[in-house]
Specification:
InterPro entries: GP_PDE_dom, PLC-like_Pdiesterase_TIM-brl. GO terms for molecular function: phosphoric diester hydrolase activity. Residues 36-304 form the GP-PDE domain. This protein has 2 domains: 1-30; 35-301, Phosphatidylinositol (PI) phosphodiesterase (TIM Barrel). Helices cover 38% and strands 14% of the residues. The protein contains 10 helices and 9 strands. It has helices at 2-34, 53-62, 115-118, 144-157, 183-197, 210-219, 234-238, 257-265, 278-286, 297-301, and strands spanning 37-41, 66-73, 79-81, 164-169, 203-207, 224-229, 247-250, 269-270, 291-294. Strands 1, 2, 3, 4, 5, 6, 7, 8 and 9 form a 9-stranded mixed β-sheet that branches. The protein is globular. The N and C termini lie far apart (49 Å). 36% of the residues are buried.
Length: 304
């Protein structure tokens, strides 16, 4: 009997230790996946018109950690949330409801239009053929200031966790002074809104163009910077910058184990774009990237 009691005690203790060990393993796995930041690309582009208030609010409701967006500058110096510095023929219609042709879209240069005129164009009723699940609705390109105010008010009213903002400066050296201001002015205009809204500690600024990023680091060294690229060659890409950015954002097809190790070895965070396919999402999670930019926030969130 004594031996039986001793055996049972040892077995019970071993079971408890195993349970604790399993629990720790589960917690460690949860902690690892929880570290992956989910960024709603242009809000929630897979389901709502891109870069619009409804898209950003949808991403917030779903639990995205970061709202990824693009900005351009209007003729009257307003910071406008838009991926293109013109009215895209893919998803924009005129104030009269007419379609815009591919050949004519660049004639609607946002940098030569007052914001009051820009706001009259409908960016949601036409839908987007590349995203058939996207809800159609009459909406518009908002100001960065309006977008921030609306999101912050919604979060406060619903007692939700604060979000971060990943703001892309849409800049191209060939377009300086044409469809955009000079890079230094562009950076100042964006930072003026950021500072007025008091969110500098909850943003990062990204761009494919190294020039505004180099300017940003010199003028606003406290701001987190992400370098966007679709090109291979990490060292070659980084040589365009005068500094090492906090975040490296490549196209997801470039990312593998060696790539991940190289980026983390340079003390940068790795946040690839734009990951929509479930298999690709799984691969990014397995590679333990720091964040995932996606048109479908729910697809990533459901896997974490």
């Amino acid at each position: 009997m004594k031996h039986l009691k001793a055996y049972l005690a040892i077995t019970l203790a071993a079971g408890m230790i195993a349970c604790k060990s399993d629990k720790k393993t589960e917690e460690a796995t949860e902690t690892e996946t929880a570290k992956i930041e989910v960024q709603g690309h242009r809000g929630d582009r897979g389901n709502f018109p891109e870069n619009t208030i409804p898209a950003f609010l949808s991403a917030v409701k779903k639990g995205a950690d970061v709202l990824e967006l693009d900005v351009v500058i209007s003729k009257d110096g307003k910071v406008v949330v838009s991926h293109e510095p013109f009215m895209s023929s893919v998803y924009v219609t005129t104030p009269k409801g007419d379609s815009i042709t591919k050949e004519n879209e660049r004639s609607y240069n946002l940098h030569l239009m007052m914001y009051d005129s820009i706001k009259k164009f409908d960016t949601g009723s036409k839908g987007n053929k590349n995203f058939p699940e996207q809800q159609k609705m009459n909406t518009y390109k908002p100001l960065l200031s309006e977008m921030i105010d609306t999101v912050e008010s919604y979060i406060k009213a619903n007692n939700l966790k604060p979000v971060r903002y990943n703001i892309e400066i849409k800049s191209d050296a060939k377009e300086y002074g044409n469809s955009q201001p000079q890079p230094s002015d562009f950076v100042d205009m964006v930072m003026q809104v950021v500072n007025e809204k008091g969110i500098a500690e909850r943003i990062n600024i990204q761009s494919f163009d190294p020039t505004p990023l180099n300017i940003l680091r010199k003028k606003y060294p406290q701001i987190t910077i992400a370098f966007l690229t679709g090109e291979p060659g990490i060292d070659k890409n980084l040589s365009q910058l005068d500094f090492v950015p906090e975040i490296y954002s490549p196209h997801y097809n470039l990312v593998n184990k060696a790539f991940t190790d190289s980026i983390k070895g340079k003390n940068m965070r790795l946040i690839p774009w734009t990951v929509n396919n479930p298999e690709d999402i799984d691969r990014m999670i397995e590679l333990k990237v720091n964040g995932i930019i996606t048109d479908y926030p729910e697809r990533v969130l459901n896997k974490l």
